[in-house]
Every structure is written in structure tokens, then in C-alpha cells.
Amino acid sequence: MSDDPRRDGIGGHERPADNHSKADRWTQGPDMSTYQSAPEMPGKAGDSAETLRERQRLAQIEMMDRWVGGVLTEQRRSRRWKLFFRLIILFLVLSLIAAVVYSAFWAGSGGAAPMQRHLAIVEVKGVIASDAPANAERIIKGLERAWDSENASAIVLHIDSPGGSPVQSQRIYAEIMRLREQGDKPILAVIEDIGASGAYYIASAADEIIASPASLVGSIGVIYASFGFQDAISQIGIERRVLTAGENKAFLDPFQPLDEGAEAFWESVLTQTHQQFINDVRAGRGDRLSDQSDIFSGLIWSGEQGLELGLVDHLASLEEVARDLVGEASWEDYTPRLDPFDRLTRRFTQMAAETLGLTVSNSPLRYQAQ
Question: Where are its TM segments located (predicted)?
């Protein structure tokens, strides 16, 4: 008998090796049944056809359940992301509403006045018009706030404007002259790039006008500009239909010729408005104005030329003015802040009117440099 433990029985046949006694890298390892990707056979040997069909049906149901579960999980994940983005949008909308409300009811009224001496700035930027940021109501409100500030050494109209509406300019001019007559604190006009026409009208009411050598000042005149389309519409076969009560009601209609009588009348309106401009500039500037004849001709001058003509008192910058008056380049802006919602609605209204061909300006006359 052999001593070999692997041999047993007649003939000494070799027994299979014990799996636990010797590791086999091909047979040993993790249980493959744990992997979901290895599908089981729908049946076993000896099962009937009906049993096989039942097992196959159950396997399909199980697979469908797993698919439906995955779809539901993905939908829940998608809903969570949608909810997250909706909350973000809601937060942004509420933040915008809060900013509009704050600007309309708190920020526009101004905070506590600075305790140290300073220049009180009121901005006059862009075209002067009732529907523009540089409108009479806003600028006058800024002037009143600056005037009431006890620590303001002077009020500075910080001007960078080509002019605009005669009526808006006259309203601001009148308010500056009223404050100037009280004599409580000086009112200065500091011109940046341009202070022409209606903007110069406003500046002439100040105690002093200060500009840079290259600033543009003057343009003391009135303008009306339009087009004549009567020949154009006749060439393309368009008939203009206008019904009026009053024979001169449509005398500025660009689709009708301007006859000599209407032109003479309109010239008289321009001349009268121009004379109002001249009289107010003379009242504000007094004897400082030069006797040069073309000073009121509508010409625009540099700051250096304006100094020679008496249109400007000094050549300096805003920083230099602040250092002279308060010892440092420091100032506070008293211009009321613009309501973002109001700016948006005004801009939308203006764009809609321009698209529809409606008149945006309230007056065809302009104190404005071209």
C-alpha cells in the first residue's frame, strides 16, 4: 500500500486535491454572484417549458423594477436641481426688489451729513431734459440738500452737458439765483468736458464758473432742427393726410413745405427765446462779460478762450477747487440717486416712442450744442 495520501482504492488511483488545502488562482476569488451585471440563467436543467417561461417573466419583471427605480431616482435628482435653481432665481428677484425699494425710499433721501468741512457736489451730466437724469426736479432737490448742509463750504455744480431743454434750464437757473441772493454760501460751476448752451445757461447763475483750458463753453443760442420730406413722399406715391382746426396748426409738419410766413413766425419765436438766454446770462455774469459782438452768436469756445471773453472766471480742476476751499480733494455728492426701476421704465418708454415714431421731447426748441 502506498503511503501517498492522494492515492486510494484499487490500482492506487489519485484523488483530486482538496480545494482548501491548495489555493487555485483560477477558482479562488470573490463570489461572482454578487455582481449585478452577471445575469442568472432563467432556468435549470430538467425544468419544464412552463417553468422556464415563468422564470423568464420574473427576470424581466425584476429588470423592469430596477429600470423604473433608476428612472425615479433620476427624476428625484432632477427635481432637486430644479428646486435649487428656482430658489436662486427667487433670491435674485427679491434682491432686485429690495434694491429698488431701498433706492426709492432710503438711498435717495441721503444719509447723515458729513461732519467735516467739504464741497457739496450736484451733478449735471448729459442732456438736460424732463425725462433724462439731468432734469430740473432732481438737480433742484440736490441743490436744496446741499444748501441745507451746515458743513458744506460751497456748492459745486459739476457740469458735463451739451445743454437741452430751455424750460428745464430756466428752472434750474432760477433756483440757483434764488439761493445765490441769500448769500449763505458760494455756488460754483465746475465744467468738465463741455458746459454749452443750456448747461452754460445754468452755469451763468453761479457765483463763479471754473473750467479746464480744453473745456468747451458758451454756445449761447437756440436751435430748431427738422427735415422736409414733401418731395420724398410724392416720389414714392404716398399721400399725407392731416386734419387740423386752425390754419397754422400743422405749420411744422415735415411732410409739408414751410412757407415764408410760417418761417418768419418761427424765427420770431427763436429770437425771443434767444433773447431770454442772453438776458439771463448777462444778469448772472454781469460786467465780467466781454463786449465782443459774437459772444452770443452761438459759437462755442475753449475754456482758455472763455476766460478771455468773461465766460469763465478761473481755469482749474475740481480737485484744485476742493484743495483751495477745504484743504484737500474731498467732496460729497448730494445729487439724488436715480431709482433703477424708474430709469428702466423711462428708457423703455423712450425706446418705444422712438420705435413708433412718436415725439420724445416736449419742446422742439433746444439750448443744445450740435
Answer: 83-107
Segments making up each domain of the chain, as ranges: 43-105, 119-368
Which tens digits make up the pLDDT trace of 71-109?
Answer: 888 888 888 888 888 889 998 888 888 776 665 555 544
346: its cell numbers: 423711462
Do 360 and 353 form a contact (C-beta atoms < 8 A)? yes
Element spanning 222, H or E: none
Please give the Cα distance from 346 to 101 (Å, whole number): 17
Euclidean distance between CA atoms 303 and 201, whole angstroms: 16
Rounded to two decimals, the pTM is 0.66
CATH number for the domain running over 119-368: 3.90.226.10
Alpha helices in the chain (DSSP H): 49-105, 136-148, 166-182, 198-203, 230-235, 260-285, 303-309, 318-326, 340-356
